[in-house]
């Protein structure tokens, strides 16, 4: 039985899944243990499945196992459920296909989760280097908001042990799976390990607005359908004083960040639709 299973839902991620898998397979791990990697290609119209399968031998050289599930149906939550049904590891890492982890992430998370008590873990999020000036400006402020600087955000990477995974059955059909899982644990059950991973923001004004709108809709959906989860929310208030300090320190960055938030309030469109937008 594997000590850890890494589940990666991937839809049209041909350009990104390779670097994600290379980083995982390049992880530091004791020679006597092994890891199971599950890529769940869901509704992909590109070569995501083929690219992922091309890493099977590389994983095997490390005595690890890489399986690729090719699902014609789309939907991230359905992909996670399909992966969970075949996953064998008691400790499980749920990873977005655009995330690149540093070599010590997996084993540190595994050690943190190796307890009988329910635990949630993630590591330190480092925003990837944006290509467009507007995303660079947005990122400078986003990295400093209370949610990013406090607790264990888990955006793009979160992990639970067996006792923690029993907190819910199948993933519900929701927008914000990472928020759902994070708030299924009390603050003292959420552990930040001392390791880093890289997670990119989307590029360009329209994509920032679209994704921010989706994020906000995901949180509101949880407040409506799972209000009890917010008893576990320890996110500090984003006070007026905090905003003023950020605005004075980086007026251009704050103008972009605030402008995106304002545009979300007045934008129209389907906030449940999703594409990478890079």
Task: Report what the structure shows.
The protein is α/β, with parallel strands linked by helices and 278 residues long. The protein contains 12 helices and 8 strands. An 8-stranded mixed β-sheet has the order 3-2-1-4-7-6-8-5. Strand 1, helix 1 and strand 2 form a beta-alpha-beta unit. Helix 6 (133-142) packs across helix 12, helix 10 packs across helix 12 and helix 11 (240-249) crosses helix 12. The longest helix has 21 residues, at 205-225. The protein is globular. The termini are far apart. The model has no long low-confidence stretch (mean pLDDT 94).
Brief rundown of the structure:
With 278 residues, this protein is of the alpha/beta class. It has 12 helices and 8 strands.
Supply Rg: 19 Å
User: Helix count?
Assistant: 12
Report the count of strand segments. 8
The largest β sheet comes out as:
8 strands, mixed
Lateral arrangement of strands in the main beta sheet: 3-2-1-4-7-6-8-5
Question: What is the string of helix and strand elements?
Answer: EHEHHEHEEHEHHEHHEHHH
Helix content: 25-40%
The shape, in one word, is: globular
Percent in strands = 15-25%
Which labels suit this protein?
18% strand, alpha/beta, 8 strands, 12 helices, 278 residues
Compile the SSE list and pairings.
Layout: E1 4-10, H1 17-25, E2 35-42, H2 48-53, H3 56-60, E3 65-71, H4 76-86, E4 91-95, E5 100-101, H5 105-113, E6 120-127, H6 133-142, H7 146-149, E7 157-160, H8 162-165, H9 177-182, E8 190-199, H10 205-225, H11 240-249, H12 251-266
Parallel strand pairs: 1-2, 1-4, 2-3, 6-8
Antiparallel strand pairs: 4-7, 5-8, 6-7
Helix pairs in contact: 6-12, 10-12, 11-12
């Amino acid at each position: 039985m594997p000590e850890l299973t890494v589940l990666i839902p991937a839809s049209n991620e041909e350009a990104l899944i390779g670097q994600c898998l290379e980083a995982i397979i390049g992880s530091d791990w004791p020679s006597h243990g092994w890891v199971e990697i599950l890529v769940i290609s869901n509704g992909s119209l590109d070569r995501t499945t083929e690219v992922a399968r091309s890493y099977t031998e590389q994983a095997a050289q490390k005595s690890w196992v890489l399986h690729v599930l090719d699902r014609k149906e789309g939907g991230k939550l359905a992909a996670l459920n399909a992966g969970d049904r075949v996953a064998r590891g008691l400790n499980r890492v749920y990873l977005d296909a655009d995330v690149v982890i540093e070599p010590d992430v997996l084993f540190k998370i595994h050690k943190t989760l190796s307890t009988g008590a329910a635990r949630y873990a993630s590591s330190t999020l480092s925003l990837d280097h944006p290509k467009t000036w507007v995303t660079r400006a947005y990122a400078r402020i986003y990295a400093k908001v209370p949610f990013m600087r406090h607790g264990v955000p888990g955006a793009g990477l979160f992990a639970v042990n067996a006792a923690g995974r029993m907190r819910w059955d199948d993933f519900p059909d929701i927008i914000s799976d990472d928020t759902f899982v994070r708030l299924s644990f009390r603050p003292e059950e959420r552990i930040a390990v001392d390791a880093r991973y890289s997670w990119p923001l989307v590029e360009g004004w329209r994509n920032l607005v679209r994704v921010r709108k989706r994020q906000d809709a995901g949180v509101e959906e949880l407040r409506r359908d799972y209000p009890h989860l917010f008893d576990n929310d320890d996110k500090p208030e984003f006070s007026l004083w905090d905003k003023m300090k950020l605005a004075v320190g980086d007026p251009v960055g704050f103008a972009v960040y605030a402008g995106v938030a304002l545009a979300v309030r007045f934008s129209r469109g389907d906030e449940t639709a999703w594409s990478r937008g890079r």
